[in-house]
Amino acid sequence: MALSYKARRRWSLLILVIGLPVYAVLAVNLVALLPVLPKFLEFILYVVLGTAWAFPLKFVFKGIGQVDPDADDNS
């Protein structure tokens, strides 16, 4: 089931405004639960967690910055 352009725009806004801050708080709390790690390992963990959210949601964000393909060209 493919999402329409408008639905993807709405979902992307919701994900960026609400989902990403919640994910950031959860990621920081997850790292805080771990025993004391060397700084470079902690940095690598933050980089992995900071980019991991985007891969499963890539289909939502793909093409959002483009012109609506379903819009009429007659303006």
TrEMBL record:
Keywords: Membrane, Transmembrane, Transmembrane helix
Pfam families linked to this entry: DUF2842 (PF11003)
Annotated protein name in UniProt: DUF2842 domain-containing protein
Transmembrane intervals: 12-37, 43-61
Naturally occurring in which organism (per UniProt): Planktomarina temperata RCA23
InterPro entries per the UniProt record, alphabetical: DUF2842
Top-level taxon of the source organism: Bacteria
Source organism phylogeny: Bacteria, Pseudomonadati, Pseudomonadota, Alphaproteobacteria, Rhodobacterales
